[in-house]
Amino acid sequence: MTDNRTVDEIISDFKCHDKGLILPLVNEYTWPLGARIFLYFFGLFWSFLGVSIIADRFMGAIEMITSKTTKIRIPDENGEKKEIDVPVWNNTVANLTLMALGSSAPEILLACIEICGNNFEAGDLGPGTIVGSGAFNLLCIIAVCVVSIPEGEVRRIASVKVFAITAFSSIFAYVWLIIILKASSPNVVELWEAIITFLFFPMLVLIAYSVDKQCFGRCSRTQPDMTTEKTIGFSE
């Protein structure tokens, strides 16, 4: 049976004939299936390796920046001045900005690259990757942190109010996505929605920092027992 279709019509039968940022390089639909599987797995592994190297260096740089300290002089019990090291970055601000950016950089970059190359329309990977990463952090990472505590030791939240704010914001982010994507403008993110969503982040950092500095009343902090207990902050 003779196929009278043109080459373009035959190529259109293959879903991956012209999609992708890098692969496929050419229309390899006529290549053996094994060769194509090897090519795509190699490209996937190469991409993951590159992302892991960049993310590792990026996180190392962020940790070096946020761990920077400076010396200040304070009076001791005898009235003499002594020098102590204090962190330059506030722990709350560092966790919510640079540390969160570093750990979420791969999925954020993936979403930005995809949406810019897709005529500013949501693709199959970007939004799903960000939401999946957030859900994984919220559920799986917290579960692992709880289970991994050594027997006989205790972990306590250093600032309950700051933790409550970040926990509320984590849940509110999903609720806000439902509002703007299902109720306000179904399947479309309008400009005003994008601006408000972006402004939520500096608002969260400002409120969390203010609470951490006890601007709205004394913040409840635990006093750890140095033998068996340790205090922890909060994750993103």
Automatic annotation (TrEMBL):
Boundaries of every Sodium/calcium exchanger membrane region domain copy: 40-209
A Pfam match: Na_Ca_ex
Record keywords, A-Z: Antiport, Calcium, Calcium transport, Ion transport, Membrane, Transmembrane, Transmembrane helix, Transport
Topology of this chain in the membrane: Multi-pass membrane protein
One GO term describing the cellular component: endomembrane system
Listed GO biological process terms: calcium ion import across plasma membrane
TM region positions: 37-55, 130-150, 162-179, 191-211
Highest taxon of the lineage: Eukaryota
Family annotation (Gene3D superfamilies): NCX, central ion-binding region (1.20.1420.30)
Keyword RNA-binding: no
InterPro entries the record matches: CaCA, NaCa_Exmemb, NCX_ion-bd_dom_sf
An MF annotation (GO) of this entry: calcium:sodium antiporter activity
Subcellular location: Endomembrane system
Signal peptide as annotated in the record: none
PANTHER family: CALX-BETA DOMAIN-CONTAINING PROTEIN, SODIUM/CALCIUM EXCHANGER
Name recorded for this polypeptide: DgyrCDS14064
